[in-house]
Amino acid sequence: MAKETAAFQLIKSKAKLLKREAFVLYFAYKDHRVTWYAKVFAICVVAYAFSPIDLIPDYIPILGYLDDIILVPLGIWLALKLITEEVISDCRAKAQELIAKGKPKN
After folding, report:
1. pTM for the model
2. Which helix (H) or strand (E) holds 92?
3. Tens digit of each residue's pLDDT (9 = 90 or more) over 76-96
4. For the chain, how long is the longest CA-to-CA vector?
5. How many CA atoms lie within 13 A of 80 on its CB side?
């Protein structure tokens, strides 16, 4: 039972981290220091992450959740690689402030 709880807590913390990183990309999209191609890729990743529409519908067993488990984190990781560390750190502070205020509910 304790193992299941620890695993669930790990998954929950990773999901919160992904959500925060998606908000980082949203703030990076609005930043003038980010190149246009990084902005385009970042907004596509954010739109896909927060969109209810999936490439593979969730009702398809196993495959339906693979896009959420693999594509979203991979897209976030790639988008963050396209943005300078200075911008990312500024945007992380903004995202953390937004989350601390309890603004994003979904």
Report:
1. 0.79
2. helix 85-100
3. 999 999 999 999 999 999 999
4. 49
5. 18
